Amino acid sequence: MRIFIPLCIFLLPFLVEAQNPNDYDSDLLPASFHKERREAFRKLMDSNSVAFFFTNPVRQRANDVEYVYHQDPNFYYMTGYTEPNAVLVLFKNKIILDSISTNEIIYVQPRNPSDESWEGRRLGVAGVQSKLGFEYVFENTSFQDLKLDYNRFKKIYYPYSYNDVRDDPYNEGDLFSLMKIFAKQTEKFKEKKDYVGLFTRCAQLRETKTSQEMKLLRKAVDISVEGHLQLMRNLKTGMKEFQAQALVEFGFKFNGAEFEGYPSILGGGENSCILHYVTNRKKLNNQDFLVCDAGAEYHGYTADITRTLPTDGKFSETEKTIYNIVLEAQDAGFKACQNNNSFRAPHNAAVEIIKKRLKEIGVISNEEEYINYFFHGTSHYLGLDVHDPGMNGKLKPGQVITVEPGIYIPEGSPCDKKWWNIGVRIEDDVLITGGEPEILSGKLPRTIPEIEKIMENASNFINLPSEK
Ligand code: GLY
Ligand code: MN
Ligand code: MN
Questions:
Q1: Centre of ligand 2 from the C-alpha of residue 381, in Å
Q2: Ligand 1 site-directed mutation target among 278, 280, 293, 426, most atoms within 8 Å of CB
Q3: What pLDDT sits at residue 99?
Q4: Quick check: 1 pLDDT over 50?
Q5: Fewer CB within 10 A of the terminal residue: the chain, N end or C end?
Q6: 200 CA to middle of ligand 1, Å?
Q7: How far is CA 414 from CA 7, 179, 365, in A?
Q8: CA atoms of 428 and 407, how far apart (whole Å)
Q9: How far apart are CA 452 and CA 320, in angstroms?
């Protein structure tokens, strides 16, 4: 007994603490990161301004089923909070409210044992104070009591309002209520309201990653590489696109990804020419080239990687030709990923190659026709969003962008039929440095010999179910 009682006393707070959703992972961004980001945002705010950040809405999927909740990336960046129905208010300067003097307040979901027994644990006010390091935290229903004198602010930053925010009539602190209160209180100050300003400032900050963010982004990329390797090692003729998807996503989930950063694109044959194909139901046959564009999300940060694989493990002559053009374009894109180059430089470099080579092989007769076969940009920023915000200015150390040229020749294209239904995209994630760019996903095989080698010994690990 003498041992039992002190042990219980010791263990009880530990067990209660362990129930907190933020306690399962030891590598989440620390509260100090988010605090520092808010400080950086504040520096970019105009004098005499206030900014509002709202959480993402909860969205309906089916009766009694919601889409898995995902936080708004700006909100996450500023707070680390991953639950819905909250609002963050940032002030450029400290203001006095009732008896408190502060430059930030956050309103969050209260703890609620009954709701939590259905939906999962919440941080609540105390958790947001202790885990996320906010000093002034209130329950979301108190947002209506924040009576700001908007006459004294020159600017009110706020995000676009979604038009699919559901009113939960039983929840006075839901996002619908929070946004309604904000809209009502600020309706007379339309000329001060600035949503572009909020996004621009977030983009200015988010386009350069801190070392803490890079740890998570590297992890997302490494996990994604594992997922793509699973596919390369196990892809077989006769598989369905969704089985190929299962292989990649197995690699993601097994290695700790919470989500896919975007719906995985597994397009074989004719589907390889659809940029954001997500049906993933077709049976793959020997002749099919398979575009696999899939990225794992880890603690909010997502990778974005594409490989194009011959289903049977061997590139045909036509596939080789198109593939090598895209590869050459990607190499040219990598070379252009230099400090102080324009954001468009990798795209311009990739276009030059694709134009020239498509003309050489007779797919086009005039270089400007390249646009019919390569009709997307080569790069976007990458981070909390797969298409991360950024200023599209000069490339700078700490920025992460994709380099993803492609060629897509759908059936019926005005060229020799032998090229039809070949779609190729090769996409890697690149860190801009002061010197050579670092290809974060560079461990994943990319060239034809490398890919053929890894696919040569397709594993028997996957037994395809027999056809019924
Ligand atoms: N996965 C979408 C893209 O590559 O931009
Ligand atoms: Mn991309
Ligand atoms: Mn992609």
A1: 8
A2: 293
A3: 87
A4: no
A5: C
A6: 22
A7: 78, 52, 10
A8: 16
A9: 11
Angle at the Cα of 349 from the Cα atoms of 333 and 289, rounded to 5 degrees: 60
> Which of 20-24, 368-372, 379-383, 445-449 is predicted least confidently?
20-24
Q: Quote the CA–CA distance of 53 and 106 in Å, as a whole number.
A: 9
- For 140, residues 6+ apart whose C-beta sits below 8 A from its C-beta are 85, 86, 87, 107, 108, 109, 110, 173, 174, 177, 178
Is residue 83 predicted with pLDDT exceeding 50? yes
Give burial (CB, 10 Å; 0-12/13-18/19+) of 94.
exposed
pLDDT tens, residue by residue, 414-452? 999 999 999 999 999 999 999 999 999 999 999 999 999
Distance 293 CA to ligand 1 centre (A): 7
Instruction: Quote the strand ranges of 305-426, DSSP E.
Output: 305-310, 400-403, 406-409, 422-425
Query: What one-character-per-residue DSSP string does 251-302 give?
Result: HHHHTT-SEESS--EEEEGGGGGSTT-----PBP-TT-EEEEEE-EEETTEE
**pLDDT recorded at residue 287:** 84
**Against a cut of 0.85, is the pTM above it?**
yes
DSSP letters for 150-183: GGG-SEEE-PPPPS-PPP-TT-TTSHHHHHHHHH
Q: What is the largest CA-CA distance in the chain?
A: 89
Hey, what amino acid is at 296? A
Say if residues 73 and 385 touch (Cβ distance below 8 Å).
yes
Q: Tell me, using a 6 A CB cutoff, whether residue 275 lines ligand 1.
A: no
